[in-house]
Each structure stands twice: as C-alpha cells, then as structure tokens.
Amino acid sequence: MLTITPAFILAASAFLRAAANPVGPTSTSKGGSGSSTDGQKFVLITVPPFPTDTSLKVIPDASHPFVAPGPGDKRGPCPGLNTLANHGYLPHNGIASFEQLIEGVEEGYNMEHDLASALSALAILGRGNAFINQVSIGGVSELVPPLPGKIDGKTAGGLAKHGRFEGDVSQTRHDIGEGDYQNFQDDLYDQFLTYVGRFGGDSPTTGNASVVTLPVLQEYKYHRFLSEQASDPNLEFSIARMIISYDEAAFVLNFFPNGTDNVIDTTILGSFFRNQTFPYNWHRRGDPGNFTFIQDAAAEILGAHPLVPGTNKNGVWTPDAPLNTGSTFTDVHLNIMQNLASSLNDVTGDLKTNVETLLAALAKPFGVDPLKVRPQGTPGQ
Ligand code: HEM
Ligand SMILES: *[C@@H]1O[C@H](CO)[C@@H](O)[C@H](O)[C@H]1NC(C)=O
Ligand SMILES: *[C@@H]1O[C@H](CO)[C@@H](O)[C@H](O)[C@H]1NC(C)=O
Ligand SMILES: *[C@@H]1O[C@H](CO)[C@@H](O)[C@H](O)[C@H]1NC(C)=O
Ligand SMILES: *[C@@H]1O[C@H](CO)[C@@H](O)[C@H](O)[C@H]1NC(C)=O
C-alpha cells in the first residue's frame, strides 16, 4: 500500500464552431439526449458493464492487424493507447470516447474496469470534451472542439497537452521545455536500455540482462528524476504527477509482459515503446490488473529511492507543502482536482450529467466522495 510513514516520505484548427452560431456560446443545454450547444451534439456518457472475458489470450486477434498511423491520425504520450489505435482497438484516427478507451484497454491489456474507468474519466474531463464524449490521444484535433462556451479554455488540448495528465519525468519523453515531450525519444530509450543491461534479468531466448525487472524500473525512474531535477529549471513533480509517473512505470511491469510467463524482455519493450505494435504471439495478462496491483508496484518502485513531491522554482528544488488529506490516495485525488477546471462545478443540464458521471468514475478507486472533493483548478490550464 502507498502510505505516508516517516521512513517512506512519499507524503510519499479549427473548432467545430457552428456556422449557425457565429457570435459565440449560447445558453447551456437544458437536458435530454440529442440537445445541441455551440453546434455540438450532446452524447450521454455511461460507464460500461464489467467485461465478461478477462482470460489470458493472444493479442491482437486476426481482426486487429497493425496499420501505421496516417498523417491525420493522432498519437501521443501513451505507448499503451498508441498501440491500441495502431491495431484498431481504439479508433485509428486517435479520437476516442470514454467507453472506447475503457473497452480498448480492457480488451488489449486486461486493465481492470474501475482503473480503466478512472483513467478514461481523467482523459475526457481534463483533456477532452465531456459534452460530446471525445478526447484526442495526441494533440489538438478539429474533431474535439472545446466545451460549449469554452468554459475550459480555447482548445480541448488532447492527452499530449502538458499538465493535468501529461507531465515531467516520463520514461521515454522529455520534459516540456527540454525537448519533445509527446513522442517517443531514442536518447531516453537508449538510457532505459542501459538500465536493463545493468539491472535486468537473464533470458534463455533474448539473452542475459535483457529482461525488464523491478530493479530496472527502480533505478531507471530514480535516474530520470535526478536527471530532470538537475536539468529542467521548471520541473513539476507534484504528488499527483509523481504517483502517476510511478504508476506508468508500474504499467510497464504489469501490462506489457507476455501474460504466459509474465516476462517483459527488450524485444517486447521495444515493440510497445518504439514500434507501438503488439509483439508477435504476445498474450495479455491472465487476470485484470487493478488499482491495487498498480499502486503496490508503484510503491515498490518508489520505495527503493523515496522522493518527496516538489518543484524546481527557477532551478531551485523546492518541496511542495504537504496536502495532508489523510492518505497518499486522497492527496493524489485532491491534487488531480486542483488541476481540473473549477468551471466544471457550474455546468447544468446534460453536461452536468456527464461531468458527474466522470467525476464519480475518477474518484472511485481513490475511495473519495466525488461530491465533496471538487475540481478547483484554473480553466484552460
Ligand atoms: C484509458 C487509459 C489510459 C490513459 C487515458 C492513458 C494516458 C496516458 C498519458 C496521458 C500518458 C502521458 C503521461 C506522461 O507524461 O508521462 C501516459 C503514459 C504512459 N502510459 Fe498510458 N494511459 C492509459 C492506459 C495505459 C495502459 C493500459 C498502458 C499499458 C499497457 C499504458 C502505458 C503507459 C506508459 C508506459 C506510459 C509512460 C510513457 C513514458 O513515460 O514514456 N497506459 N498514459
Ligand atoms: C548468462 O548468465 C549465466 C549465469 O550467470 C552464464 O552461465 C551464461 O554463460 C551467460 N550467458 C551468456 C550468453 O553470456
Ligand atoms: C520495429 O520495427 C522495425 C521496422 O519494422 C523492425 O526492424 C524492428 O525489429 C522492430 N523492433 C521491435 C522491437 O519490434
Ligand atoms: C509468450 O509466451 C508464449 C508461451 O511461452 C510463447 O509461445 C510466445 O512466443 C511468447 N510471446 C512473446 C512475445 O514473447
Ligand atoms: C485487485 O485484485 C486483488 C486480487 O484479486 C484483490 O485482492 C484486490 O482487492 C483488488 N483490488 C481492487 C481495487 O479491486
């Protein structure tokens, strides 16, 4: 479990502006499916049912071959989602709904339903459009206009937009201001491979020191932090970003291994990170990977070199004031809410229905009451 203890100081384009509505926002929709605002058609969001098949199986199946993205297709900072889109488990153009994200990560990786729902809710709320139920897995798309009335800024951002979800100290993307923070980077991946070479496990097929193990992520993530702490004068490593970035390291250990033997070697690692394709004859894990697994794995990775959340202010490392909500989980949830737009509290009608569905899905794994801990960030940030 992730807990705060003295030893483990974790405290441990064009918008789809309605031609008929050139003067700007109209009144908020009054409810009822099919309502329109700002020329956008409302789409009701519902949390899909739990999947019936969570067994070990070969991915992709015959109907999901790799197709390289075309010039207009969106890809972004998440190797997991990029791979799904390349295989048509998500729409190939990289624009997905809440339900498509959940069903995609469940089918492709056996990500557990509530974890998938929380991540997908953050994606739509923070970087998509909750009125039309769409988000770009990459940058801004004309298919995902900003919310009616632009109540959360002039664009919907997409998952590649920095802040709220995309953040610093990634494994294979630079920090914003330090280089390309959206796409796969060879120089970082080469560093990752040196950590596999130094700390990795042996394999009879791919060779010695070619298996990605817990010590590899423990040492590589710490290296990435120290490296950005030294080089990025604007490093932001708040509690939510810190934990989510360690969760993403935990994803590597929990969702990328071949499900038959739980081994992730450098061939598999390269297939997902570099080529963004499922490895040949790869099997998804044989049981749903849930929030507990991920937080436990993240705690193990962080536990080797515990860090405190903080920020570089003009290059000077400054620990954040503790949030002290009672647990790391509730701290992370609060910190996520500190970045989601406060204007989401003021919506009415159809949009409110969707926003509340998403806030509840996001809060669920953290065990927080979504009616009590509300979005309080600056719109458009
Ligand atoms: C709906 C579910 C998901 C959403 C919305 C999502 C979104 C994201 C976003 C926005 C990032 C960028 C964060 C950063 O700046 O580092 C990211 C990173 C990452 N995601 Fe996902 N993700 C999802 C599911 C998955 C799954 C199922 C996997 C693995 C199979 C995965 C693997 C990763 C990894 C390894 C990274 C870190 C990349 C790096 O640090 O270079 N994600 N994800
Ligand atoms: C791999 O490591 C094992 C045990 O450490 C050793 O016996 C073997 O020779 C090594 N194989 C190669 C190809 O280096
Ligand atoms: C990635 O794709 C390239 C080009 O198709 C191929 O040569 C390489 O073996 C692939 N690497 C992995 C790790 O799948
Ligand atoms: C996964 O394991 C199975 C069974 O051992 C093996 O046949 C398959 O080649 C492995 N796949 C990968 C990508 O390593
Ligand atoms: C995750 O799965 C494990 C093993 O089945 C279980 O003990 C745990 O309670 C689950 N956690 C969640 C949040 O579902």
Automatic annotation (TrEMBL):
Pfam families registered for this protein in UniProt: Peroxidase_2
Span of domain Heme haloperoxidase family profile: 62-299
Co-factor(s): heme b
Leader peptide range in chain numbering: 1-20
Membrane spanning residue stretches: none
Entry annotated with the keyword DNA-binding: no
Matches recorded under InterPro entries: Chloroperoxidase (IPR000028), Chloroperoxidase-like_sf (IPR036851)
Gene3D superfamilies noted in UniProt: Chloroperoxidase-like
Keywords per UniProt: Heme, Iron, Metal-binding, Oxidoreductase, Peroxidase, Signal
Keyword Signal: yes
Gene Ontology molecular function: any one: peroxidase activity
Family: Belongs to the chloroperoxidase family.
Protein name: Cloroperoxidase
Lineage, opening ranks: Eukaryota, Fungi, Dikarya, Basidiomycota, Agaricomycotina
